[in-house]
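Why should sequence recovery work at all? Because a backbone constrains its sequence more than one might expect. Tight turns favour small or flexible residues, buried strands favour hydrophobic ones, and helices have their own preferences. The token representation captures these environments compactly. In the example below, the structure is given first.
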């Protein structure tokens, strides 16, 4: 029976309270994915197993935002080691991809990288991330961690309201832009009946299930060195892509030391470049030079906006593959540089360019177990379904992360063979000043992510909100120059005050534009307090 109601028509404001648990908690943008993580915990796995199970399930239950062809990043707190680990599982450009070749092949679009097709496809890092996390920390096999995802893909799951909305938007966009035989498999996979799925429809992805089984059985080797890798190579050659078997076979994820900034008695932690987590840290480093007592004040929002604009100006100029950066990215986080940039913030909105520091400087989920282990994890196909390429017979939707490369050789983030591009997806983690864990947090959504991180951290630290309130609070988003958008729930008097300070403020009716986040805080007695995004179909599974 077709539903007689509109599943997205929320007539009355709802109220969410944080969830409390002790045995374990999984926060994810899909209830099925959260249940997959909880299943791993119930089977004797730890938070790391739960993270892998949830991440794999999200490729099935939210293919509008991520897939097996995604990149991934993670921040992992090991209670045994009393240490926070960082994992960068973003893939590089193919070795055949260069500025000269793309221009010679006529693949550029008005001098820029194309957004769809095989050209912006980079090596996929997500399957390697699952294998790395499982191999280093997990208690279950990778096949066990991926089993719920395989089941969802093969047996099916019902489409949720927000997923249907994103599916419709993706279909509308691709229908206008994607023409040609290389895109046929995308249509066959994701709109098999010639229309996008609607809320309540059952979704089945059998090819996806078989690929996940192969990844689980081989600790991801099938994807990088086996039949799947050869199939990707074959399709890339067929349609003029640059990705080859050798690119996949050579790929390794990188364990990295997390970046951190001290902010009012807390250590805010992010993955270092090529990720844009440094944007949130630079902005907080600037805001350390001010005192905030009231959240809903024009002065608070103005300073937040100016700090994020300064941080983006520096990031867009400097951040790329760390092996190719012109400066040591640590200098961008020095207290002296934060103070220098803070002095530039005046009483009115400005447009900023980068500065030279003194010489001395998206799907998101999180989970925790009853032992103290916690994981902050994010993976993405970048723009919705990604490149529009689905490898025939595999269900693998490939990301279009390479579209962020510049084709200007003078730019820091210019395309080079084997180079990793500036990356938008970022997991976050809070530690106390003494290094003890507080918990994971994150907000997905392109360039909204560091802006969401800043707002959530300040809501928790400066304004003493619980995790659910910290996520639910109305958000702003800086777009470019002086343009700022705010949610419909944003205080209209505050928006008018920002307008008087020179910000070009408008209301954005699209709730997902402001990110979708999760957060877990671990109390001293081991109790877990979780918040989950009210802007989408997010869910917490716990016991």
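From this structural description, the recovered sequence reads:
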């Amino acid at each position: 029976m077709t539903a007689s109601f509109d599943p997205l028509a929320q007539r009355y404001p709802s109220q969410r309270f944080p969830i409390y648990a002790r045995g374990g908690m999984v926060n994810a943008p899909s209830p099925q994915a959260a249940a997959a993580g909880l299943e791993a915990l119930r089977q004797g796995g730890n938070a790391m197993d739960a993270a892998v199970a949830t991440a794999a399930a999200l490729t099935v239950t939210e293919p509008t935002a991520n897939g097996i062809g995604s990149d991934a990043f993670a921040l992992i707190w090991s209670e045994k080691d009393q240490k926070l680990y960082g994992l960068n599982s973003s893939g590089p450009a193919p070795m055949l991809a260069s500025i000269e070749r793309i221009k010679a092949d006529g693949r550029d679009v008005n001098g820029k990288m194309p957004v769809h097709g095989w050209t912006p496809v980079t090596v996929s890092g997500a399957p390697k991330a699952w294998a790395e996390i499982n191999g280093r920390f997990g208690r279950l096999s990778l096949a066990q961690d991926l089993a719920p995802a395989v089941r969802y893909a093969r047996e099916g799951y019902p489409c949720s309201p927000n997923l249907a909305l994103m599916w419709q938007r993706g279909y509308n966009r691709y229908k206008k832009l994607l023409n040609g035989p290389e895109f046929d498999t995308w249509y066959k996979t994701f709109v098999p009946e010639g229309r996008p799925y609607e809320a309540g429809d059952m979704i089945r992805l059998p090819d996806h299930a078989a690929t996940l089984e192969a990844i689980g059985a081989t600790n991801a080797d099938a994807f990088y060195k086996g039949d799947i890798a050869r199939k990707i190579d074959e399709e890339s050659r067929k349609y003029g892509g640059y990705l080859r078997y050798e690119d996949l076979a050579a790929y390794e994820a990188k364990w990295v030391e997390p970046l951190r900034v001290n902010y009012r008695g807390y250590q805010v932690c992010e993955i270092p470049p090529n990720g844009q987590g440094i944007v949130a840290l630079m902005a907080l480093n600037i805001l350390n030079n001010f005192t905030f007592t009231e959240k809903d004040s024009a002065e608070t929002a103005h300073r937040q906006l100016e700090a994020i604009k300064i941080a983006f100006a520096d990031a867009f100029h400097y951040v790329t593959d760390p092996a190719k950066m012109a400066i040591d990215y640590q200098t961008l986080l020095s207290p002296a540089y934060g103070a220098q940039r803070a002095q530039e913030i005046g009483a009115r909105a400005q447009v900023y360019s980068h500065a030279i520091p003194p010489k001395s400087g998206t799907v998101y989920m999180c989970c925790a177990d009853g032992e103290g282990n916690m994981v902050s994890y994010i993976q993405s196909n970048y723009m919705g379904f990604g490149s529009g390429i689905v490898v025939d017979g595999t269900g693998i939707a490939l990301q279009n992360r390479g579209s962020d490369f510049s084709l200007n050789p003078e730019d820091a983030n210019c395309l080079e063979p084997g180079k990793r591009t500036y990356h938008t997806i970022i997991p976050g983690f809070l530690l106390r000043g003494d290094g003890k864990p507080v918990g994971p947090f994150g907000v997905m959504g392109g360039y909204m992510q560091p802006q969401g991180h800043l707002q959530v951290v300040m809501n928790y630290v400066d304004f003493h909100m619980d995790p659910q309130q910290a996520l639910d609070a109305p958000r702003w988003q800086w777009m470019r120059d002086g343009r700022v958008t705010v949610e419909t729930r944003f205080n209209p008097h505050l928006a008018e005050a920002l307008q008087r300070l020179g910000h070009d403020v408008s209301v954005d009716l699209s709730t997902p534009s402001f990110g979708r986040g999760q957060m877990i805080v671990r109390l001293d007695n081991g109790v877990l307090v979780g918040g989950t995004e009210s802007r989408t179909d997010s869910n917490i599974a716990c016991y």
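A few observations help interpret the result. Confidence is low (pLDDT under 50) at residues 356-361.
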